[in-house]
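ok new one. same drill as before - structure tokens go in, u give me an amino acid for every spot. 498 of them this time. try not to just spam alanines like last time pls lmao
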């Protein structure tokens, strides 16, 4: 009121200026109010947006909760599925073990079937199959299926450098046995000879106990090979190695001479680590020297002319070899041993290796040999140097050959029937006497006739005449006993090569 009063007391100009000032203030206020209204409008829009966002957030929270609920259910499902999968895996593992066992059983049965078929085939043909391999560690290799196949495909398998001792257990196919000679002079496992053979052949094989660690001998019964055969299974370590010995060939020769017998046929099979190239393994004596010696000793002449056994069997005197190595010391020692023992290298002379001389070791040399006496070449068939198999050996190839033999399917127990007359029965004695009188009256008359003739001859009766009469009497009693008392069958087991 005081301002108003003052205003009205002022002059007109002042009042006008004041009104303009007021107008300006009001105008500014209006402008500010408009701005405020605009801001308020924006706030309202923001509020609406916030409400909308709040609603969306609530919706999202609900969706998140739904997702969480779903995830929880999925986790529960996954856990359940995991349990089901684990259970299935456990059952699969159990089933796998059972399937593996069944597969092994099926394979074993198949091997047994195949083995029996091989046995029947070989026994029908009358042959004995051999293999030889420097296996360089037998224990681990014996777990390989290829090892079982090699053993099953042969009657006798010879392995050297087995690196075994008496505590080692070798995995063998069913129906096979083994004989081992371990090296004992060194603490570290080395060398060693293992012979695996069909169990049914055991009664025909003898393994002499000898001192040399370089050879294990096998003596074959005449019932199996038609002749007595001596086989030496040899492993001689390489020249210059800590296991080598200059006496190896001497030991083999001395044991051979100790075990040798007249008319004995001989075999050496082994890794001799001897490189012989194509040098001769025989000696053709100078006829002039024989004339000078003027010997009539049959045994000496047979010894000097033994090489003729090769010519008789159309075996080449010339050897062949893919080995380009120069002969080493062991090679010369082996050739000297062959000449002394009248034995001949079969490599390159027979079988698939004829005129070839295939490499046996490391794609470089021939060091594994089959060596035969001259009279065994005609019995030996199918000699072959097989392709190298890295699963079975480090560097050596398998040698295989066949010897003619007696069929041995009947080596197993064979039952024969033997008839026995039942013991005397007093209750049937009257029947027995009656039977002799009625049924054997003709035989009795024959005996009476013989006795009458003997009485007439008096002093000229011979022992044979008496034996004839007694045989007739025994025949009557035996046949009558069989008819009256009967017989019974007795089973008797026999083992023989047929």
């Amino acid at each position: 009121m005081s301002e108003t009063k003052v205003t009205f007391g002022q002059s007109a100009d002042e009042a006008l200026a004041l009104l303009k000032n007021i107008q300006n203030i009001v105008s500014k206020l209006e402008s500010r109010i408009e701005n405020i209204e605009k801001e308020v409008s924006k706030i309202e829009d923001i509020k609406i947006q916030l409400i909308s966002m709040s609603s969306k957030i609530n919706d999202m929270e609900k969706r998140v909760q739904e997702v969480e609920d779903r995830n929880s259910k999925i986790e529960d499902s996954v856990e359940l599925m995991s349990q089901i999968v684990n259970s299935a895996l456990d059952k699969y593992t159990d089933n796998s073990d059972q399937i593996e066992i069944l597969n092994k059983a099926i394979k074993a049965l198949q091997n047994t079937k195949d083995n029996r078929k091989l046995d029947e085939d070989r026994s029908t043909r009358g042959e004995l199959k051999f293999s030889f391999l420097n296996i360089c560690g037998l224990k681990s290799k014996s777990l390989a299926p290829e090892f079982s196949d090699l053993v099953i495909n042969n009657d006798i398998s010879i392995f050297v450098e087995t690196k075994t001792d008496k505590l080692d257990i070798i995995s063998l196919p069913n129906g096979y046995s083994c004989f081992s000679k371990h090296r004992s002079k060194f603490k570290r496992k080395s060398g060693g000879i293992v012979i695996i053979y069909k169990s049914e052949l055991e009664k025909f094989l003898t393994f002499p106990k000898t001192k040399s660690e370089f050879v294990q001998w096998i003596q074959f019964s005449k019932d199996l090979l038609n002749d007595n055969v001596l086989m030496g299974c040899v492993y001689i370590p390489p020249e210059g190695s800590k296991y080598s010995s200059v006496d190896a060939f001497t030991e083999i020769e001395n044991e051979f001479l100790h075990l040798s017998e007249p008319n004995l046929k001989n075999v050496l099979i082994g890794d001799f680590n001897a490189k012989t190239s194509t040098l001769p393994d025989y000696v053709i004596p100078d006829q002039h020297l024989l004339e000078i010696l003027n010997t009539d000793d049959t045994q000496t002449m047979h010894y000097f002319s033994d090489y003729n056994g090769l010519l008789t069997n159309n075996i080449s005197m010339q050897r062949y070899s893919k080995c380009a190595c120069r002969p080493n010391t062991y090679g010369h020692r082996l050739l000297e041993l062959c000449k002394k023992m009248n034995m001949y290298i079969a490599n390159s002379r027979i079988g698939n290796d004829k005129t070839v001389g295939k490499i046996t070791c490391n794609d470089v040399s021939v060091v594994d040999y089959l060596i035969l006496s001259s009279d065994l070449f005609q019995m030996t068939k199918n000699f072959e140097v097989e392709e190298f198999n890295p699963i079975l050996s480090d560097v050596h190839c398998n040698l295989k050959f066949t010897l003619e033999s007696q069929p041995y399917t009947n080596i197993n127990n064979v039952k024969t029937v033997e008839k026995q007359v039942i013991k005397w029965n007093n209750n049937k004695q009257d029947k027995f006497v009656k039977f002799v009188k009625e049924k054997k009256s003709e035989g009795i008359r024959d005996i009476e006739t013989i006795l009458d003739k003997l009485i007439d001859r008096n002093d000229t009766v011979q022992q044979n005449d008496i034996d004839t009469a007694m045989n007739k009497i025994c025949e009557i009693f035996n046949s009558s006993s069989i008819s009256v008392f009967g017989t019974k069958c007795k089973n008797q087991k026999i083992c023989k090569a047929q």
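The chain has a mean pLDDT of 82. and btw Residues 12-125 form the longest helix (114 residues).
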